[in-house]
Specification:
Blueprint (H helix, E strand, L loop, with lengths): L2 E10 L2 E11 L4 E5 L6 H8 L7 E6 L7 H4 L2 E4 L11 H11 L7 H6 L15 H12 L6 E5 L7 H16 L3 E6 L2 H4 L5 E6 L2 E6 L1 H8 L3 E7 L2 E7 L4 H10 L3 E6 L3 H13 L1
Parallel strand pairs: 3-7, 3-8, 5-6, 6-7
Antiparallel strand pairs: 1-2, 1-4, 8-9, 10-11, 10-12
Helix pairs in contact: 8-10
Length: 276
């Protein structure tokens, strides 16, 4: 088991940020933490990194205490807001972080992997936000981490670079790395996270694969078709899909599309359920 949280609680100034939170992550899985601002996502990551301690409960990272240096050497972390010394080049920045981890300074293969090899000799002050984000990802990958923590990883990345990042995440998971992503880009995660943990006010309110969450939410799919020049929009549950499609085809329907509930829809459903 890569990560274990058992009944974890954390408060700041008397305000509960994480409440009775329990879950476990297995090696080689890609898991998304989904929640609004203040839902406790970043606080959890800080506890996993050993930067702060839970008030109660237990966190175990790679079988031990996250504050141990030997544990931290196997962690990778990309914060939401990446900050580097503006006078360092990309290569110097990565070399500095490699030294902190006790690794060889030469890391051009990582710079090439994130698409920065041609800019490696340029000062970071001249990097775009997307380039700084890619440099942050390169430092997170130093030492081939067994647990990779990504806080809003696609911030500042264009659609093509987002696809590259998720492709890289999939490759890492296939090699046994556990990847935990915190993101507000909910729809973007669809197809990239095999498990989604939904948070609200520091509590876990849903946990499962997208298929499981869709089934639990019971939200209808949206079917659109044009019949005799008239556009029809129909909400259908799982059992109604096949017979409705057959009926539309029998009527000579054209341009049929079927859209399952998105992650945004699922997230909103669970929040509404909590509010009720």
């Amino acid at each position: 088991m890569t990560l274990l949280l058992e009944a974890v609680c954390k408060s700041y100034g008397g305000h509960a940020v994480v409440q009775d939170l329990s879950y476990a992550l297995e090696p080689g899985t890609v898991v998304a933490l989904v929640g609004h601002n203040g839902a406790g996502k970043t606080t959890q990551i800080k506890m996993m990194l050993g930067l702060t301690r839970p008030d109660s409960g237990r966190i175990e990272v790679l079988g031990g205490d996250p504050r141990r240096p030997e544990t931290r050497r196997h962690l990778g972390y990309l914060p939401e807001s990446v900050q580097f010394h503006p006078g360092f080049t990309g290569r110097e920045t990565l070399a500095f972080h490699a030294r902190l981890k006790g690794l060889p300074e030469a890391q051009d293969a990582l710079l090439d992997r994130v698409g920065l090899i041609e800019a490696a000799g340029r000062a970071v002050r001249g990097y775009s936000k997307g380039m700084r984000q890619r440099l942050g990802l390169a430092q997170a990958l130093l030492g081939a981490p067994r647990l990779l923590l990504l806080d809003e990883p696609t911030s500042g990345l264009d659609p093509a670079l987002r696809r590259e990042l998720y492709g890289l995440v999939a490759d890492l998971a296939a090699q046994g790395t556990t990847v935990l992503m915190s993101s507000h880009a909910l729809t973007e995660l669809d197809g990239h996270a095999e498990r989604v943990i939904v948070l609200n006010r520091g509590r876990k309110i849903a946990d499962g694969t997208l298929a499981e969450l869709r089934r639990l939410a019971g939200l209808p799919a949206r079917l659109t078709a044009r019949v005799g020049g008239v556009l029809r929009r129909i909400a259908v549950n799982e059992a109604e899909k096949a017979p409705t499609l057959r009926a539309l085809l029998a009527e000579g329907a054209e341009g049929i599309t079927l859209e399952d509930p998105s992650l945004d829809d699922i997230y909103a459903h669970f929040l509404r359920r909590e509010a009720a």
